[in-house]
Amino acid sequence: MGILSAKGARSPLLALSVFIVAFIVGFMVWQSVPRVPFPRSHGSTHHVAISTVPETKAAPVSMEEIMRLLFTPLKIEPDQPTFTDLNGTAHTLPPNPRYRKKLGKNVLVLDLETRSLESDKAWKKGIFNWMNLDHLSGGVFQHYTYALIHNYDYKFIKAPKFWDRHSSWIKPSAIANQLHDYEFIVFLDADAAVHNMHLPIEWLMNYWDVEPKHSITMAKDPWEPEHPEINSDRFNRTLTNTGFMIIQNNPTAHEILKAWHECPDDTRYVGCSKWKKPRFHEQSAFGEFIRYDYEDNIKELECKEANGAPDVEVSDCKGTFIRHYWFEKHNVKLDFQENMMQAITVPFQRTFMDNWPRVIYTQDSNKII
């Protein structure tokens, strides 16, 4: 992405996990057991859930189960005709969606880094604090949670740095090495986020009409006619952004990844070595060279749907489904927090409404009686 203008308290992970486990277990019990009257001191009746089953030692609940259960009320099916976001905007699938079943472990959500996670160091020291978490760990946690919600596989790969090129050049080879074991890889940069975590990648691939021939699906960068030199290749065509990619395991995908990885060697693509270190590294090389040999196998998405953030005005690039926080990187944590709070507060809202007659009282007059 080119340079375009765009406009506490300690919370240990252990304590957060205990709270979530307790909440989920309580939510499960609330859903499944009968309610009986519970007398209150002033004589009215308040209903609470109790179990009539003899007490037994509960089996441990895994974090995978917790996340899937927490998001179950929000999740939609891969072929659900319409998805309405929290802004009230309806998004409709094209006729005859291709992906009708959940792909599960056939999908890999992938993080690639040469950097270590600061959260790992903090955890080992016993000082983990979400409020102090950097965007790198925040983005990784978001991606990992997304994989748990939909039962996708997840990997965080820490690769060595290159001696002669920018670290982002690890993408083609690392993706190629993993692609043998999956139908699809969903790759995101650490500052990119799936904006609606309850929305499965299968639905998005239906929405974008990803065909079997499409080896790599990626979004275009923002572009404006006033500055055509920014985010364009040598033919003035808008670059695609490698911060979010869907890579499909087909024969051409492996060929593309190999050509991309070897591009800076200046064998097949003379002049590609120019992009070893200057912006935008592997992204510029892909846009300048690779995609022209594989036009039919590259699916380019509009910037506004799978790139950018709400404060980006250029190309209306506001990240409807995938957001990429190039500038305000800390917002990837906020995106994650909002998704989690939406999932947690939905059952609270249901509880409140179910108990409406017992918690809402009408006062006839504003007098002390």
UniProtKB/TrEMBL annotation:
<keyword id="KW-0808">Transferase</keyword>
<dbReference type="GO" id="GO:0016757">
    <property type="term" value="F:glycosyltransferase activity"/>
</dbReference>
<dbReference type="InterPro" id="IPR008630">
    <property type="entry name" value="Glyco_trans_34"/>
</dbReference>
<keyword id="KW-0472">Membrane</keyword>
<feature type="transmembrane region" description="Helical">
    <location>
        <begin position="12"/>
        <end position="30"/>
    </location>
</feature>
<dbReference type="InterPro" id="IPR029044">
    <property type="entry name" value="Nucleotide-diphossugar_trans"/>
</dbReference>
<keyword id="KW-0328">Glycosyltransferase</keyword>
<keyword id="KW-1133">Transmembrane helix</keyword>
<comment type="similarity">
    <text>Belongs to the glycosyltransferase 34 family.</text>
</comment>
<dbReference type="Pfam" id="PF05637">
    <property type="entry name" value="Glyco_transf_34"/>
</dbReference>
<protein>
    <recommendedName>
        <fullName>Nucleotide-diphospho-sugar transferase domain-containing protein</fullName>
    </recommendedName>
</protein>
<keyword id="KW-0812">Transmembrane</keyword>
<dbReference type="GO" id="GO:0006487">
    <property type="term" value="P:protein N-linked glycosylation"/>
</dbReference>
<dbReference type="GO" id="GO:0000139">
    <property type="term" value="C:Golgi membrane"/>
</dbReference>
